[in-house]
Amino acid sequence: MMRAAVRYSPNGNPFVSLFAISRFNAVITHSASAITPRDYSSSISTKGKPWVPKGFENVKCLDDALSLFRQMVETKPLPSLVAFSRLLKTLVNMKHYSAVISLFGEMQKLGIPADVFILGTVINSCCLMHRTDLGFSILAIHLKKGIPFNVVIFNILLRGLFAENKLKDGVNLFKKLVRENICEPNRFMYETIMNGLCKRGHTDEITYNAIMDGYCLCGQMDRARKFFDFMVDKSIEPSIISYSILINGYCRNKNVDEAMQLFLEISQKGLKPDIFTCNIVLHGLFELGRTSSAQKFFVEMLSAGHIPDSYTHCTLLSGYFKNGLVEEAMSHFHTLERRRQDTNIQIYNVVVDGLCKNGKLDKALAIFEKLSVIGLHPNVITYTTMINGFCREGLLDEAKDMLRKMEHNGCLPNNAIYNIIMHGFLQSNKISETKAFLMENDGEELVI
Question: Where are the domains of the chain?
Answer without folding.
Answer: 55-149, 378-447
